[in-house]
């Protein structure tokens, strides 16, 4: 049992983090607003999960200005991509696919 | 009493165990759903296909009435006809007819998609919408230039063929960002376009098939599938 669970990544236990990683796997980058609207979560909730994933080094934030308004855009890192792939693989192993 | 609380405990743990068993499956389902929703424009309605098809058929009927009988019976219009005043007038009328069909089809596509998005509680404009439209517009704009600059200087079936081929390529190109079935509609449009090139005598009929019948069949199929 321990063997199967070895690749389940604690960083992705929350559904919000799962959602953030899913969006960034298939989009080169996504900004805060579009992530919030896709995942239907509150600003505070999303921000704290984004920060956590940033601390793991799985995503990076890029701050820029669009029409003089600050805009934060997020991108997945190579490490994040690999970890998320491993996590999906582990989930699939768990359900015996 | 002890027995009862034991039973409760057992039930509780069983519930937890079941939840844990289902969680990976539910996680995978959510990952798939979010990946799909965030990378594809899914509000495209089948009804817009049906509407576009009906407009195209009406446009083809109008074209059949605009084109003189002897040209329909013959092998398309000759070079001398294209150069004549009457010829260029007819070509302009046909162009206006085709442009009207295009505009009506686009308006209905927008309307039905907007309605579908609203019904699903989503906005029609997402970052993906822009990407899909750009990928659709690039081949379509190239085709538009080709058609306008060669209009009247090439046989009619070449113009009809070009509209079908460029439209089909535009669909194939944008299928990455919307419902995957669009890819196959694009392939069929390109095949119809090539057939139009090879069979000049049936150009109008093939054009009506490509933009009319194919759209209606596709639209009904998608409407039933994603209702």
Description:
The complex is a heterodimer of chains A (97) and B (227). Chain A is of the alpha+beta class. Helices cover 57% and strands 19% of the residues of chain A. Chain A contains five helices and three strands; from the N terminus they run ααβααββα. Chain B has one domain (44-225). Chain B is mostly helical. Chain A binds chain B through residues 15, 18-19, 21-23, 25-27, 30, 34, 37-39, 88, 91-92, 94-95, and chain B through 24-25, 27-28, 30-31, 34-35, 37-39, 123, 126-127.
The DSSP helix count of chain A reads: 5
Helix content range of chain B? over 70%
Structural class of chain A: alpha+beta
The domain count of chain B comes to 1
DSSP summary, beta strand count of chain A: 3
Count the domains of chain A.
Answer: 1
Can you tell me the residue ranges of chain A where pLDDT is under 50 for at least 5 consecutive residues? none
Which whole number gives the mean pLDDT of chain B?
A: 85
* CATH class assignment of chain A: Mainly Alpha
Largest sheet of chain B: none
Helix content, binned percent of chain A? 55-70%
- The ordered string of helix (H) and strand (E) elements of chain A is HHEHHEEH
How would you name the CATH homologous superfamily of chain A? Winged helix-like DNA-binding domain superfamily/Winged helix DNA-binding domain
Number of strands of chain B: 0
* Mass-distribution shape of chain B: elongated
Amino-to-carboxy terminus distance of chain A: 16 Å
In terms of topology, how is this protein built?
The complex is a heterodimer of chains A (97) and B (227).
Chain A lengths: L1 H4 L9 H12 L3 E2 H8 L3 H14 L2 E8 L2 E8 L1 H17 L3
Antiparallel strand pairs in A: 1-3, 2-3
Chain B lengths: L1 H38 L6 H21 L2 H5 L5 H5 L1 H35 L7 H24 L5 H19 L7 H17 L4 H23 L2
Helix pairs in contact in B: 2-5, 2-9, 6-7, 7-8, 7-9, 8-9
